[in-house]
Design brief:
Elements: H1 27-39, H2 49-61, E1 65-69, H3 72-83, E2 90-94, H4 103-107, E3 111-115, H5 126-130, E4 137-143, H6 152-161, E5 166-169, E6 177-178, E7 181-182, E8 189-193, E9 206-210, H7 213-223, H8 247-257, H9 260-277, E10 284-285, E11 293-294, E12 300-304, H10 312-324, E13 329-330, H11 341-344, H12 372-380, E14 381-384, H13 392-409
Parallel strand pairs: 2-3, 2-4, 4-5, 5-8
Antiparallel strand pairs: 1-9, 6-7, 6-11, 8-9, 10-12, 12-14, 13-14
Helix pairs in contact: 1-8, 2-8, 3-7, 9-13, 10-13
Length: about 400
């Protein structure tokens, strides 16, 4: 009798949002871009695609005003500039975020006041925000991380009680809902990103939204070098940048926007299937969201307990890559944002250290004991790639890979 060794199963290549396999780009985008090119008008000040995008996006979210801009970072910068902080004012923000959401604060002469997060959702909460409110607080930025909305009911109640405007960083949260209302529509300004890996993409791009007429005017002006297009006697009214979106980006975005609801539904549906398949695995916690909220799964995040699984999130990520070719990101970001050199060494404009020179000691206190949720959250999180092209076959493959990996590293 001949003993045979089972042939290894071939690795399944997962759709990737950095290329066509994980994106919805296609004939519609090509047609719109072709139309824009043939028109010969590629600036949004004269074209039609960016204006149409703005109108359609405002209508989808049910807000009065939406303005397109050149990136998600530009969206955050535009929102902060619209609130016009004084040098040294503090803007509350999360300790787990992209640098593109932080440098605009410094560029406007304000101080990022980092607050802790819930270690299970990785989101800021009303409680973590309240501990840092003071007379210098100019605004609160909340980030709907990974597509899971913050508790905006509690946050807005706190902000309104103190008369502090809220900016929502909704870069990862297109069509996420809190109590049936879209994320990005609670605060004074909503900010969205159209970067390559977001729910819809133009490679780079952003959108800002508001229901406040005065703020809308400031948003529009800041995107346009503070030049009053359409005014009887336009001028450059204050210091501002050119953050306009081009008609080429607008054409792609307009086509992408028509697909957004389907994209979100597919991400949610496939995430629900994976969650069901991962229930009951020792040492693993699947994503959670409030019962009345809608998580839109920019990424799919697990919490991994290193007391149960050897080397925790890092160990699981290593096994998934080695055994099944699945790339994932333990920790999401390797360290809290405030540990980056910009903040630790106060590297800003020349050797001036401005605006840190205007900060209070409390605003620059990055002591570990002030951020227990941040450090626990980063230690345990494993971020799985996610996009709307995942099929049941992909979900089964990921689930089986996780089961097998856990069996290998269980203590």
């Amino acid at each position: 009798m001949v003993n045979t060794i089972p042939a290894p199963q071939p690795l399944l290549k997962l759709p990737n949002d950095q290329e066509a396999s994980g994106r919805t780009l296609g004939a519609e985008e090509i047609a719109f871009v072709t139309e824009a090119i043939l028109s010969g008008t590629l600036t949004s000040t004269k074209g039609t695609f960016v204006k149409a995008l703005e109108q359609q996006f405002a209508q989808l979210l049910g807000v009065k005003y939406a303005y397109a801009c050149s990136s998600g970072t530009a969206a955050i910068h535009t929102a902060i500039a619209a609130l016009d902080p004084e040098p040294g004012d503090e803007i509350i923000t999360t300790s787990i975020t992209d640098m593109g959401a932080l440098t605009p604060i410094l560029y406007q002469g304000a101080i990022p006041r980092f607050v802790d997060v819930d270690p299970v959702t990785w989101n800021v909460t009303a409680a973590t925000i309240e501990r840092c409110l003071n007379e210098r607080t100019k605004a609160i930025i909340v980030t709907h991380l990974f597509g899971n909305p913050c508790n905006m009911t509690e946050i807005m109640a706190l902000a309104d009680a103190h008369h502090i405007p809220v900016i929502e960083d909704t870069a990862q949260g297109f069509l996420a809902k809190h109590h049936g209302q879209y994320a990005g529509t609670f605060g004074k300004v909503g900010c969205f990103s159209l970067q390559q890996g977001k729910h819809i993409t133009t490679g780079e791009g952003g959108i800002v939204t508001t229901n406040d007429e005065a703020i809308a005017r400031r948003l529009f002006l800041y995107i346009n070098k503070a030049f009053g297009y359409g005014d009887p006697h336009p001028d450059h009214y204050f210091i501002a940048l050119n953050y306009r979106m081009s008609e080429l980006q607008g054409a792609v975005a307009a086509a992408q926007l028509s697909k957004l609801e389907g994209i979100v539904e597919r991400r949610y549906s496939s995430a629900a299937k994976l969650t069901e398949k991962l229930q009951g695995i020792p040492g693993l916690e699947t994503p959670v969201h409030a019962p009345l909220d809608t998580h839109v799964y920019w990424k799919y995040c697990l919490r991994v307990d290193a007391r149960v699984l050897t080397d925790g999130a890092v160990g699981l990520a290593k096994k998934l890559k080695e055994e099944k070719g699945i790339f994932s990101a333990p920790r999401y970001i390797q360290k809290p944002a405030f540990q980056c050199e910009i903040f630790e060494k106060q590297r800003t404009f020349g050797n001036s250290r401005f605006p840190f020179t205007l900060a209070t000691p409390e605003a620059l206190d990055y002591s570990r004991d002030r951020f227990p949720g941040t450090f626990e959250g980063l230690e345990k999180v494993l971020v799985l790639p996610w996009n709307e092209a995942y099929t049941d076959e992909h979900i089964d493959y990921i689930a089986d890979a996780i089961h097998q990996a856990v069996a290998h590293i269980a203590r």
